[in-house]
């Protein structure tokens, strides 16, 4: 980029690179085009500026250094209703599937997909696919309407049931075709997004008029590009209750230790946010920052100092932390779950046992109380809080607008506070690790005084 260093005002913006998403018109000749029926919906009051045009874009990054940025700025299509739609609502057969683990807000997304398809676009054939991807070929689908789903946002879990594994591309695409679905809404985590890419490619290959979209679900907030995933804020809120309980237990004992394991296999966002918002955590252990137990600068030394000074400590450990420290048997090394993910060893009980052994070894005879809390299933199972409920609604509506407009192979997500359509293969490979070099991790270090374990 050219710049005049003597005149800061002379910086010019780098060019913009638009991350385009696929459209059914690329593979379907003479694709139908109709005016958007939202005009007639009592919920929306369109004006000329209401509809989003294909030239409306969002920048992925809003902070950059003009003196060093030379690569093009990535931009995505803005989400929202288009003035023209590519599906006749009377012929739409929409399928909704939930895959992977539970996350607060799953039922809200399903509910809002059903209600908005029905109320905004007049779609009447909406189906729930049961028990994850295998439901496309091994179970009956359930017909959904606003009356059935009206209170689903108040329930945790997924009323469609979910599962891992069962990914058989031929059978899934065959099931989609056989059941006559032409819109497929996949709600799930990273694995589900990778599966959606394969289904999308196969549908493209077969030149079918089927639009497929992903709505990323990850309670751990481990998906990149988007601001956050739905359910994350609820998860932090419930995690905080566990952290406060651990604090009460620790404070009420002599040499009391409260140990809380929080979700986060690859990323420590929940642990980090719970630590920062609770103000009672002495040590936060996350997968992105290796730690060790023994010796100078290790966890035991730090805990001993804190116990001497404060009489109690609270430790938060993310489930993916310390995996390199936990001894693995040969069979555990090879073990995978049904979806092919590496099985994580349970860091909570392991750390609890190591702490008890350490105390007995080095401080035998001195009082010591360790209380371990694992709130994982409580966190996953609660309904979404108000903020997440709203977020789920906007994600569901954005997905429907994109699909009705004929886009396919995309994900709806919030980027810098606005909603965008992102190619699903980009989301499937985008990670969101905690940046241990940035100010938030420095902030964790300052509120906990924990060692850096370097
Ligand atoms: P969670 O956040 O709970 O991990 P997830 O979507 O990552 O959610 P998985 O169990 O890994 O959960 O995957 C969900 C579904 O996607 C499963 O049916 C699985 O078989 C399928 N899947 C996962 N990874 C792939 C892949 N690489 N290719 C095809 N299908 C996949
Ligand atoms: Mg996953």
From TrEMBL:
Cofactor: Mg(2+)
Localisation: Cytoplasm
Binding, substrate: 218-220, 263-265, 319, 377-380
Binding site for ATP: 101, 164-165, 189-192
Database matches in Gene3D superfamilies: 3.40.50.450
Pathway terms, separated by semicolons: Carbohydrate degradation; glycolysis; D-glyceraldehyde 3-phosphate and glycerone phosphate from D-glucose: step 3/4
Source taxon at top rank: Eukaryota
Enzyme class per UniProt: transferase
SUPFAM superfamilies: Phosphofructokinase (SSF53784)
GO MF annotation terms: 6-phosphofructokinase activity; ATP binding; metal ion binding
Known EC number: 2.7.1.11
Span of the signal peptide: none
Residues that bind Mg(2+): 190
Functional note: Catalyzes the phosphorylation of D-fructose 6-phosphate to fructose 1,6-bisphosphate by ATP, the first committing step of glycolysis.
Official protein name in the record: ATP-dependent 6-phosphofructokinase
Active site as annotated: 220
Keywords: Allosteric enzyme, ATP-binding, Cytoplasm, Glycolysis, Kinase, Magnesium, Metal-binding, Nucleotide-binding, Transferase
Notes on activation and inhibition: Allosterically activated by AMP.
Catalyses which reaction(s): beta-D-fructose 6-phosphate + ATP = beta-D-fructose 1,6-bisphosphate + ADP + H(+)
A GO biological process held by the record: fructose 6-phosphate metabolic process
NCBIfam families for the chain: PRK06830.1
